[in-house]
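Here is the promised in-class demo. Please do not try to memorize the tokens; focus on the logic of going from shape to residues.
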């Protein structure tokens, strides 16, 4: 391709969108922006056709854009008539003043995008008029190093002044990242608590596919380096972001699409009602056992118990499949974390999450779920599963005090008299009542969730293992679908975590079964007093 043809090709493909973006920012009006963009484009085309040698296309585009913008403003203010010389002189001064302000604005922009060491030496040298030796003493480096940093910083500023930065989508349309984890959260509920701000969420989203620098993050998010650096350092300390090479960072956990609509629909269509029929048939075989007093300490009806049994029988069978087939990282092999936790984080990109509806507009209850989530404290195992019917927010589970199930277990087993509780126990009991783990019925308090002893828990595990042979072919069918859909989108350095989190999609077997249970009218209809804990399973270890 001839040089002039390449210039025109680059102008059309790369610079036209940037010119229009420049005009939108300057005019804040689509019609005027289009008019200005046409004038700028015409001036650029004339310059390219002139045969003049173009050494820096970016610089040319920037200068023409600003010059044409100034002329546009002048014409808009004074009209297109003839002017007296002194008027023209005044206009030229206005133009020069505008260009000066633009240059200062761009200079500040470039400073804000610099890495900390370059930014600090520029500010100390030019703003505070410190010598190289004074700066060296302050930063604990040699004077030669300071001079080198100043040289590099000046080159970066010079280069940056001649370009129009193309800000990323996240500068105006920030994404949404939610976090969960496997194993045991940290003392301050890490890693979930580490992504409360939009900036930390979008840093992790922007650094997921490939390693990026702080400067690249600044451009993508439209945020100055001093603020980005603090967030990057915070995420590195908390092991959600990793410095993979000097100055380059990459997200260190798997992020999956928050909207799993298609996956759940495909799983449902390929495996149901076959799976549901097999599951219910198996559970019904053990109904007399599972509804007896040893298994039903709350005296729930059978249709209320099924909210737990559908969840836990499926989950136990799935856990075996995940360990046998999906290459799960065991809890023993999950890394210990800085703040006392032992976890692998899992992110969900909810940036484009919309109402979960099928093509006919009917909401599908089997699509969303949150869990299973676990707590193991003082010999008590607790597992929560949250879905459409219970509410999706597992934070109600994580926000409970660690030993609340121990206290509730003692009350349920008759080991603690409500009238003889100490102050700490009274407080814990009030928290249990507030969170509806225990509810008041007339003059009595009753448990509002499923609880069993250790022997009963072992019997449920045996029942689930008996079911595994029937479930295995359908689990394998669904797992193949999931791998085909998602495995190629996970960065290679995270493949060791892949089985743990792609296999989470298999948990749709729980919600799909609950959905079929509701369709077949075999499940208790929840109300506001018991919806959160429909599928909560708590047992002595």
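The designed amino acids, position by position:
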């Amino acid at each position: 391709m001839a040089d002039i043809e390449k210039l025109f090709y680059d102008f059309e493909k790369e610079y036209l969108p940037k010119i229009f973006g420049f005009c939108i920012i300057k005019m804040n009006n689509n019609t005027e922006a289009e008019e200005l963009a046409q004038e700028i484009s015409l001036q650029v085309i004339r310059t390219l056709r002139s045969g003049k040698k173009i050494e820096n296309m970016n610089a040319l585009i920037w200068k023409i854009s600003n010059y044409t913008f100034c002329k546009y403003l002048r014409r808009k203010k004074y009209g297109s008539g003839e002017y007296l010389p002194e008027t023209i002189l005044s206009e030229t001064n206005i133009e020069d003043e505008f260009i000066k302000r633009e240059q200062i604005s761009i200079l500040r922009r470039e400073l804000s995008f610099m890495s900390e060491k370059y930014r600090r030496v520029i500010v100390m040298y030019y703003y505070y008029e410190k010598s190289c030796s004074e700066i060296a003493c302050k930063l604990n480096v040699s004077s030669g190093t300071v001079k080198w940093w100043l040289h590099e910083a000046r080159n970066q500023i010079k280069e940056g002044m001649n370009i129009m930065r193309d800000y990323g989508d996240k500068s105006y349309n920030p994404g949404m990242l939610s976090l969960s984890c496997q194993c045991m959260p940290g003392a301050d509920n890490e890693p979930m608590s580490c992504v409360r701000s939009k900036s930390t969420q979008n840093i992790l989203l922007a650094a997921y596919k490939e390693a990026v620098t702080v400067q690249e993050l600044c451009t993508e998010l439209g945020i100055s380096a001093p603020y980005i650096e603090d967030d990057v350092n915070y995420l590195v300390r908390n092991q959600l972001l990793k410095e993979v090479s000097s100055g380059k960072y990459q997200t260190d956990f798997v992020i999956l699409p928050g909207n799993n609509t298609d996956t759940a629909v495909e799983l449902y269509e390929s495996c149901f009602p076959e799976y549901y029929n097999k599951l219910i048939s198996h559970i019904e075989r053990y109904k007399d056992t599972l509804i007896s007093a040893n298994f039903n300490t709350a005296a729930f009806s059978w249709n209320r118990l099924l909210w737990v049994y559908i969840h836990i029988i499926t989950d136990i069978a799935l856990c075996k499949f995940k360990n046998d087939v999906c290459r799960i990282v065991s809890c023993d092999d999950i890394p210990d974390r800085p703040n006392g936790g032992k976890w692998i984080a899992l992110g969900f990109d909810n940036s484009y999450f919309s109402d979960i509806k099928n093509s006919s507009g009917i909401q599908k209850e089997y699509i969303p779920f949150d869990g299973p989530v676990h707590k193991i404290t003082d010999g008590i195992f607790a597992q929560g599963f949250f879905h459409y019917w219970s509410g999706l927010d597992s934070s109600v589970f994580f926000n409970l005090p660690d030993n609340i199930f121990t206290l509730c277990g003692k009350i349920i087993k008759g080991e603690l008299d409500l009238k003889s509780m100490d102050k700490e126990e009274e407080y814990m009991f009030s928290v249990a009542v507030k969170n509806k783990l225990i509810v008041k019925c007339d003059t009595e308090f009753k448990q509002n969730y499923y609880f069993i002893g250790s022997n009963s828990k072992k019997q449920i595990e045996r029942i689930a293992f008996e079911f595994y042979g029937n479930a295995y072919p359908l689990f394998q069918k669904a797992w193949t679908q999931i791998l085909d859909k998602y495995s190629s989108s996970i960065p290679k350095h995270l493949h060791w975590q892949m089985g743990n989190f792609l296999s989470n999609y298999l948990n749709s077997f729980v919600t799909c079964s609950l959905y079929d249970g509701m369709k077949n009218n075999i499940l208790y209809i929840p109300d506001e007093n018991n919806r959160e804990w429909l599928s909560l399973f708590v047992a002595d270890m």
